[in-house]
């Protein structure tokens, strides 16, 4: 796994808001490469706004391929976070302001 490769896996309805929440973090961490895997059934028009940022790319790879490459995963309520955690990856749950987060990862304790 690449320690500088990070996956962003938005849920069905929060991709744009999630990326806006993460924008400062992405810009601060230029040493990392961020992969956005848009939800396959979402309106993903927002991803075009991120194509010109040097350390961000959009992927259409299968999620299992991406999880085999990255060392960190950022999610809101996506089940991808549970899969990543089970694989031993670092998972960061993002709370989008003004939205209720129903991720079961919020209930887990170490």
How is the topology of this model organized?
Blueprint: E1 2-9, H1 15-28, E2 33-36, E3 56-58, H2 63-69, E4 70-75, H3 80-86, E5 90-93
Parallel strand pairs: 1-2, 1-4, 2-3, 4-5
Annotation keywords:
alpha/beta, about 110 residues, single chain
Structure report:
- Helix content is 25%, strand content 23%.
- The mean pLDDT is 87.
- Strands 3-2-1-4-5 form a five-stranded parallel β-sheet, with helices on both faces.
- It contains three helices and five strands.
- Strand 1, helix 1 and strand 2 form a beta-alpha-beta unit.
- By secondary structure, it is α/β, with parallel strands linked by helices.
User: What fraction strand?
Assistant: 15-25%
Give the CA-based shape: globular
Q: Alpha-carbon distance between the termini?
A: 23 Å
* Residues in helices, as a percent range: 25-40%
Taking pLDDT < 50 over at least 5 consecutive residues as the criterion, the unreliable ranges are none
Structural class: alpha/beta
User: Could you give the order of the helices and strands?
Assistant: EHEEHEHE
Mean pLDDT: 87
Count of runs of 4 or more consecutive helical residues:
3
Count the E strands: 5
Largest sheet: 5 strands, parallel
Widest sheet: strand ordering: 3-2-1-4-5
Radius of gyration, in angstroms, nearest whole number: 13 Å
In brief, what are we looking at here?
The protein is an alpha/beta fold and 110 residues long. It has three helices and five strands, in the order βαββαβαβ.
């Amino acid at each position: 796994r690449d320690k500088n490769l990070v996956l962003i896996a938005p849920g069905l309805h929060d991709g744009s808001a999630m990326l806006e929440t993460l924008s400062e973090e992405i810009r601060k961490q230029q040493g990392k490469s961020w992969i956005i895997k848009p939800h396959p059934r979402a309106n993903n028009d927002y991803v075009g706004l991120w194509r010109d940022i040097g350390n961000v790319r959009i992927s259409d790879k299968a999620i299992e391929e991406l999880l085999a490459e990255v060392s960190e995963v950022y999610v809101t309520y996506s089940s991808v976070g549970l899969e990543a955690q089970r694989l031993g990856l670092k998972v960061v749950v993002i709370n989008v302001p003004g939205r209720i987060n129903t991720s079961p990862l919020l209930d887990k304790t170490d």
